[in-house]
TrEMBL record:
Gene Ontology terms for molecular function: metal ion binding; molybdopterin molybdotransferase activity
Top-level division of the source organism's lineage: Bacteria
Stated name of the protein: Molybdopterin molybdenumtransferase
Transmembrane segments: none
Presence of the UniProt keyword Nucleus in the record: no
GO BP terms, alphabetized: Mo-molybdopterin cofactor biosynthetic process
Matches recorded under InterPro entries: MoaB/Mog-like_dom_sf, MoaB/Mog_dom, MoeA-like
Pathways per UniProt: Cofactor biosynthesis; molybdopterin biosynthesis
Pfam families membership: MoCF_biosynth (PF00994)
Family to which this protein belongs: Belongs to the MoeA family.
Organism annotation: Candidatus Fusicatenibacter merdavium
Gene3D superfamilies per UniProt: MoaB/Mog-like domain
Known catalytic reactions: adenylyl-molybdopterin + molybdate = Mo-molybdopterin + AMP + H(+)
Keyword tags: Magnesium, Metal-binding, Molybdenum, Molybdenum cofactor biosynthesis, Transferase
Length: 339
């Protein structure tokens, strides 16, 4: 910040508001801080009794806050991100499509460790809808040194994209519902309508439901049938506990795929299972998916339907925020539990 003669301030950024008072008529802001002084402003400033003002000189290696904000999002944002207009030095990032928000957290933290930088986001790895506010960016002062932005852009380039949205892929899902009580008709299946609604939210389609009972061979045949049909996911409901009659986990293991996890640090949803068979995710869904509005399903299945390959580590990380708060108003897809 420097003090300059009004006549020498053209092209510089005003560092403070300037008030105008017309007795009996008006008192208010004539020039706002952040205003870039133009030639036409000089006479007005002189009329207001201003001979000197405090400014940032953009010709001396400073970048105006509006230009800085735009450069920040252009450097950090990846696919399916849109930007708002810059207002008062701040720019907003929004989702350009439905999908899952991905954020490189280490990069985000490194960027915000740069002096005079503010780059804030919502929590990542959650479903977002088109138009959803994802974050905002600005610099702290009215004008920032060029080297600050250069550092921001360098970090972003090393990690690009820092923030992006992975769109949902059109997916076909087969449902295998185990349990002799369902197969025999003694109990009506309640999973299908829940899974159908969730599939619609994710842009997916349920192609059918099979009822193999509790026979391991029949369960295997049902799952394999969907895989041979070319589905993008198989969802197996029922039989996920440790009871002796619950065969789902052992059958999924016996299919010979890559078992990622049986059990998660998520409540509700601890008995969730994920395996990849011939590269296709086969998930074992615990009973809570049928009756709880929010479960591990809503944290994991959307990611799988973007094509993301999950590891055991991804499930371990769910422990922080994996306890559902049972909020009185649960507004999926904004809920990511405590994450």
């Amino acid at each position: 910040m420097e003090k300059v003669r009004v006549e020498d301030a053209v092209g510089m950024v005003l560092c403070h508001d300037i008030t105008e008072i017309v007795p009996g008529e008006f008192k208010g802001r004539a020039f706002a801080k952040g205003h870039i002084i133009e030639e036409k402003d000089i006479e007005k400033l002189l009329d207001l009794g201003k001979r000197h003002i405090y400014v940032w000189d953009l010709s001396k290696g400073y970048v105006h806050e509006n230009d800085a904000a735009l450069r920040m999002v252009q450097a950090a944002a990846g696919e399916n991100i849109t930007f708002s207009e810059v207002k008062e030095g701040k720019i907003e990032l929004r989702a350009a499509c439905d999908g899952v928000l991905k954020i490189d957290l280490e990069a985000l933290y490194e960027l915000n460790d740069v002096e005079e930088i503010c780059f804030a986001t919502i929590h990542g790895n959650k479903m977002v809808t088109k138009g959803k506010l994802l974050g905002g960016a600005r610099v702290i002062p009215l004008a920032v040194r060029e080297e600050i932005l250069t550092a921001f852009e360098k970090i972003s380039a090393e990690h690009r994209p820092v923030i992006s949205v992975r769109p949902f892929r059109p997916a076909k899902i087969g449902v295998v519902t185990t349990g002799s009580e369902i197969q025999s008709g003694r109990i009506q299946d309640k999973f299908w309508p829940v899974l159908e609604d969730k599939a619609a939210e994710l842009g997916a389609e349920l192609v059918g439901q099979k009822f193999p009972g509790d026979d391991p061979e029949e369960i295997t045949k049902a799952i394999r049938g969907y895989l041979d049909q070319g589905v993008d996911m198989v969802q197996v409901t029922g039989g996920m506990s440790v009871d002796p009659d619950d065969m789902t986990p052992s059958v999924i293991r016996a299919l010979g795929g890559e078992v990622i996890t049986y059990g998660t640090p998520v409540l509700p949803g601890a008995m969730f299972m994920l395996s990849y068979v011939d590269g296709v995710p086969v998930v074992g869904l615990p009973g809570c998916v049928m009756y709880s509005k929010r479960t591990v399903f809503d944290l994991i299945v959307p990611r799988l339907l973007t094509g993301e390959k999950l590891s055991k580590r991804d499930f371990v990380l769910l422990a922080h925020g994996g306890q559902c708060q049972n909020c009185p108003v649960c507004t999926y897809p904004d809920c990511g539990f405590g994450q």
